[in-house]
Amino acid sequence: MQKSVVLAEKPSVARDIARVLKCGKKGNGFIEGDKYIVTWALGHLVTLAEPESYGEQYKTWNLDELPMLPGNLKLVVMKQTSKQFHAVKAQLQRKDVKEVIIATDAGREGELVARWILAKAHVNKPLKRLWISSVTDRAIKEGFQKLKDSSAYEGLYHSAVARAEADWYVGINGTRALTTKYHAQLSCGRVQTPTLAMIAKREKDIQTFKPVPFHEITVHTKKGIAFNWIDQKTSEKRIFNLEKAPKLKEQILKEIVTITDLKTTRKKTPAPSLYDLTELQREANKLFGFSAKETLSVLQRLYEQHKVLTYPRTDSKYLSSDMVETLTERIKACDIQPFRKIVSQLKGIKPTKQLSCVNDQKVTDHHAIIPTEQAPSPSALSEKETKIYRLVVRRFLAVFFDAYEYDQTTITATAAGEKLVAKGERMAELGWKVAYHDDATGNKMDDSESHLSEVKIGEELKLSDVKVISSQTQPPARLTEGTLLAAMERPMAYLDSENKQLADTLGKTGGIGTVATRADIIEKLENTHLIEKRDKFLHLTKKGKQLLELVPADLQSPALTAEWELKLEQIASGKLSKELFVKEMKQYAGDIVQSIKQSEKTFKHDNVTGSPCPECGKLLLEVNSKHGKRRVCQDPTCGYKKNVSKVTNARCPQCKKKLELWGEGEGQTFACVCGHREKMSTFQKRRKENQNKKVSKREVSNYMKKQKKEEEFTNTALADALAKLKKE
User: Fold this and answer.
1) Four-residue CA torsion sign, 32, 380, 520, 160
2) 271 lies in some domain
3) Closest by Cα among 398, 276, 401, 396 to 329
4) Is 311 one of the annotated active-site residues of the chain?
5) Do both 34 and 52 map to the same domain?
6) Which of 58, 504, 535, 557 has its CB surrounded by the most CB atoms within 10 Å?
7) What is residue 112's three-state secondary structure?
8) What is the bridge-based pairing of β-strands 3-8 and 36-40?
9) Binding residue per annotation — 418?
């Protein structure tokens, strides 16, 4: 019997698909059934070859050999996952296999994972595509009932290849040129460099900001209404002429406040849009301090492992009309604590295509992130998973309620010929805010009221006080991961010129990078020590500042990167040839190398030690990594490196932070940031003593029970009497 190979992106998804397709026979890297063989990648199994595979001259880094522009880039099997590649290849090449069903993640990168495996395995069998947004059993069954022809995704594949090749040509040439020219480990890229430049621009804006003092005047009446002074010509509250405010105060104090106008307007605020990935990452960073990468990892688990949320790598905040019939079941799946009260108010509603969140024109590859028809079991989710899941559920439930309505009252008055205004709000209909009313995460929507006493036009109010409030203009806030994600999505404010066309381009492309790559870009900037996080704010390092002085200016522009992203979208839709785009990128890579070669600028290390490299004699650099400190030769062509300390799981006896282990052999020493130090021998002695003091869980349990009884019966005479009664 002829069979179909189903190629999934990860083992967990493969197992789910195999179960739904009733495949039960396990093999080496696959699960087989009567009709299907389900196999899997481990992310990318195949990638673009390293430079050295294109010639001996590229094995050593040499500025004279650049630019490096091979005609066709080669594919290679990744060493660390080669075993799984060969397991997949064996299934793909079986004679009883008639077709291949691509079931990798439904997106540009997922398409590339599968197509590169097929290309490297030299498989030319008919292809079909499983395109689903959640991995519940129902979604998988429905997806297999309407498999799509792979030709519909040919453009997406070409776009993915173009992106990968562009990053190779620009990134590798730029990085090698910078590193060899300045003898420092420097890297650049078509997305990471503009992102770094955006952080630098914000830092420059803060440093060059000059605060301007101003005054505001508040007029308090004996009826309890506080008015703000407003400029009659500009409607501005702030007074930058500092001599004017005290004079106005004196004039107003002599007068009575007369009501000249009174307006009450009913206003409506619709429910916030559903989440796309960037918005959710921003919210999680603001509320919980989660990094963009952390949020994406949690979402992946909620999507793949728990199957309670839909595909996370989406840039849409809308749903397609064909999803409307699934919404009732999704609401039902949310009927768990703490959402029971909210869901009970939605019982009996019939979602329609008229919902504000339904818009076919604004859904591209994927719809917004929403709950699936599957509810999580009460104890299945971790603390972080619970936080993210609840954010998504509240947003989802909110869109089914009416708008929040409130009455806004504006009272206009005069005193000494000056205009005074007071505003107040009163809630009329809670609407969608009911979904946030009991939210204890800090994500409560503001529905606070500010009542104003009742007055009539022409009424005169006596003054109780007039205050002049001194303040000054504030610099822009430093970027956090959340605000940087927003800046990457809408980088118009970071353009050097007022070019409307460039702004339009950025608007069309959705900024720089993609929702799927932005978290990785930020993490890479941190790992390469170009930026650092202090508290929650991102700061440019000295290395990052110097790099931007050395990189060609146009590579730093968000506009250039956005134009490239627009071209990648055109390739995906078949409007632009992949070959033309790659040719442009090769030309650009050559221009970057030429610019770096001709530069007369220099780079100065800020982490040089006094120790010479034992290989070449140049002074070593001390660098921080996730696992501790290491010393590396400042000449990348030398390649010498040595670990000098590593972060351990051992805890400091004073502050309980993780200890670092320094030195070698008998001289090894544990050190903590709080100043605590102890030799390895002392540490082992202390640990042995602590282990001897350890008690079993049963002993702890018995002790706690005993403590509880003692707390319950502080009157021992009463306790004894009760004990006798029980015995009788």
Assistant:
1) positive
2) no
3) 396
4) yes
5) yes
6) 557
7) helix
8) parallel
9) no
Cα gap 408→420, rounded to integer Å = 17
Coil, strand or helix at 668: coil
* 531-534/3-8 β-pairing: unpaired
User: How many other CB atoms are found less than 10 A from the CB of residue 44?
Assistant: 16
Helices (H), 498-614: 500-509, 518-527, 542-550, 558-572, 578-598
The full length of the chain comes to: 728
Among 472, 503, 528, the domain boundary falls at 472
Contact present, 659 and 650 (Cβ < 8 Å)? yes
Catalytic residue among 153, 275, 311, 588: 311
Quick one: tokens of 75?
């594919």
**In which order are the strands placed within the sheet that holds 608-612?**
608-612, 619-625, 628-633, 641-651, 658-662, 669-671, 677-679
Do 542 and 624 lie in a common domain?
Answer: no
Res 465: pLDDT: 93
In the numeric block, the tokens 């090894």 are attached to: 668
Q: Both tokens of residue 573?
A: 């839709």
Mean pLDDT of 549-578: 88
What pLDDT score was predicted for residue 43?
Answer: 84
Same domain, 70 and 14: yes
**Residue 386: other Cβ atoms inside 10 A:** 15
Does some domain include residue 158? no
Q: Between vectors from CA 314 to CA 312 and to CA 316, what angle results, nearest 5°?
A: 130
At 602, list the tokens. 């220099």
Summarize pLDDT for 295-326 with one digit per residue, the tens: 999 999 999 999 999 999 888 999 988 889 89
Question: What is the CA 263 to chain-centroid distance, rounded?
Answer: 43
Phi first, then psi: what are they for 244, rounded to 5°? -75, -40
> Collapsing DSSP states into helix, strand and coil, what is residue 402?
coil
Rounded Cα–Cα distance for residues 479 and 483 (Å): 6
- The residue ranking higher by pLDDT, 188 or 450, is 188
The structure tokens listed for 674 are: 């709080």
Could you give the C-alpha distances from 322 to 349, 401, 649, in angstroms and in order? 18, 21, 51
Residue 122 belongs to what domain range?
3-146
Cα separation, 196 vs 551, in Å, equals 11
Bridge partners of residue 645, in order along the sequence: 629, 662
Can you say whether the dihedral through the CA atoms of 469, 475, 480, 483 is positive or negative? positive
Per the annotation, does 606 bind a ligand? no
Q: Are 126 and 99 in contact (CB under 8 A)?
A: yes
| The two structure tokens encoding residue 600 | 């007369």
Residues 426 and 410: beta-carbon distance below 8 Å? no
Percent of the chain with pLDDT over 90: 61
- Domain boundary pick from 400, 427, 454: 400
**Do residues 486 and 467 both lie within one domain?**
no
Are residues 426 and 324 part of one domain?
A: no
Contacts of 421 (CB under 8 A, 6+ apart): 227, 228, 230, 410, 411, 412, 413
Cβ atoms 272, 282 nearer than 8 A? no
- CATH value at residue 219: 2.70.20.10
Is 224 domain-assigned? yes
Contacting residues for 108 by C-beta, under 8 A, at least 6 apart:
156, 159, 160, 163, 365, 514, 516, 572
Give the Cα separation of 191 and 485 in Å (integer): 13
Of 324-333, 426-435, 447-456, 471-480, minimum mean pLDDT range: 447-456
Q: Is 273 left (phi over 0), alpha (psi -120 to 50) or beta?
A: beta
Q: Read off the pLDDT of residues 207-222 as tens digits, 9 standing for 90 and up.
A: 999 999 999 999 999 9
159 within domain boundaries: no
By C-alpha distance, which of 565, 558, 554, 583 is closest to 516?
565
Neighbouring C-beta atoms of residue 509, cutoff 10 Å: 23
* Coil, helix or strand at residue 176: helix
Complete DSSP assignment for 212-253:
-EEEEEEEEETTS-EEEEE-TTT----B--TTHHHHHHHHHH
DSSP summary character for residue 446: P
Cis peptide bond upstream of 67, omega within 30: yes
Which two structure tokens, joined as six digits, stand for 143?
A: 């997806």
Tokens 């064909």 label which residue? 322
